[in-house]
Amino acid sequence: MYKKLCIKCSQPSYSSCNEGKWVCPVCTNDLTERKAIVTSHQEGMVTRKGAYITISKERDHQISFFA
Question: Which of 16, 56, 51, 9 is nearest to 31 (CA)?
Answer without folding.
Answer: 9
